[in-house]
Structure formats: structure tokens, C-alpha cells
Amino acid sequence: MTRQPRTTSRPITRPATRITTRDITKIAVFAAIIAVLGIPSAIPAFNGAVPITAQTLGVMLAGAILGSWRGAAAVTVFEVLVLIGLPLLSGGRGGAGVFVGPSAGYLIGWIVGAFVIGAIVRADRLRPTWYRTALGCVVGGIGVVYAFGIPVQAFVLGLPLSSAALSALAFIPGDLIKVIVTTIITLSLWRAYPRAFEGRARKPVATSV
């Protein structure tokens, strides 16, 4: 009798995520969206140091729609363009100086925040839901961004941390509106054009070998 080869069932993980032309296009589009949202003039906050802008909306949308690493990449591309001197921030600001000013922590927080938003919104690797989208935007788009922005602002301006945190309260109403807008846009886009959400990670598939 010939002996049959033994078969076992084990999970086979699909190849690691690779950057495709479609990924690059999406990243570029959302970097452009963040830039366009900077066209309206910045609204000075009462502290006069960190302005209120619409660009956080673009950060939230990037994370919610593109997912974690693509969303963070879109924000990074935008900030690299700012770093080399393009005046893409609200009020026509740009250059290396903005990354050592009072807004520097918020700019860093945008990148991390977009990643966190994407990780929460796409946590189950399926369709986005309103509660997970809203939660992701609150945690990543507000909590994480403030966690980076407030300490850096306090350090640069020589303020007590409590004073910098108090000044950040001026951003809360606008940011909550952005959370609502992002949730509405994300779910509407999912229903109208789910292909915009393609490229999400897949779960391992069990295969007999």
C-alpha cells in the first residue's frame, strides 16, 4: 500500500499590504482635500496662537475612508508639502517654521490621529458603522490630536499645561461638528461608492495543504 501524504489545515496569511497605484492616487486625493480645506481663512482662537481651521475635517475623512496607514500617509504627504514651503495651511502658512511653533504638536497629532481613526473605523475589516466612525473621530481626531497639541503648545509658549488645555476648549464645538460631518460623509460614500473603501486588510484564510 502506498502511504497517502498527511494533510493538515493551517491558516495561510495573504501577502503583506503592498502600495498600489490606486493607493497612491487615493493618498494624493486626500492630501489635496486637506489642502483645499485650508483655503478658508483661519479663525483666530482666543489664545491667538493656534487658529481654528477646517483642515481637521480632512484629517478625519482621510482616516475614516482610507483606513489607518493610508489615512496617515495622506496627512504625511500634505505636511511634507507644507514643510518644503508650500503655503497650504489655513491663512497661507507654510515652511519649516510652523513645525517649531505653537501648532507643531497639532500637526504631529494629525498624522497619529488619522491612523487611530482608521484603526477604529475599520476595526472589523468590514463596512464602517456610524458609532465606530463617530468614536474613531472623537478618539483620534480630537483626543489624540489634543494629546500631542496641548503639551507642545504649552512648551513653546511657556504656559502652564492647564492654561494650554483651557485654551483648547475653543476647538471643541467645531471639532464635534466635524465629527458629525465626517460620519455622515463616510456612511453616505459607503452606500454610494463602496469601492472607495477598497484596499482594507483581509483576515487570514484557512486552507488545507
Kindly describe this structure.
- The chain is mainly alpha-helical.
- The chain has a single domain (21-198), classed as Arp2/3 complex 21 kDa subunit ARPC3.
- It is 56% helix and 4% strand.
- The protein is built from 7 helices and 2 strands.
- A two-stranded antiparallel sheet has the order 1-2.
- The longest helix has 28 residues, at 130-157.
- The chain is globular, with a radius of gyration of 20 Å.
Key attributes of the depicted protein:
209 residues; mainly alpha; 2 strands; 56% helix; 4% strand
Secondary-structure element order, N to C: EHHHHHHHE
Percentage beta strand: under 5%
Largest sheet, in brief, is:
2 strands, antiparallel
Strand order of the largest sheet: 1-2
CATH topology: Arp2/3 complex 21 kDa subunit ARPC3
Q: What is the overall shape?
A: globular
CATH architecture: Orthogonal Bundle
Structural class: mainly alpha
What's the pLDDT, averaged over the residues? 85
Q: In total, how many domains does the architecture comprise? A: 1
Topology:
Layout: E1 9-12, H1 21-36, H2 55-66, H3 68-83, H4 104-121, H5 130-157, H6 161-167, H7 172-192, E2 205-208
Antiparallel strand pairs: 1-2
Helix pairs in contact: 1-2, 1-3, 2-3, 2-4, 2-5, 2-7, 3-4, 4-5, 5-6, 5-7
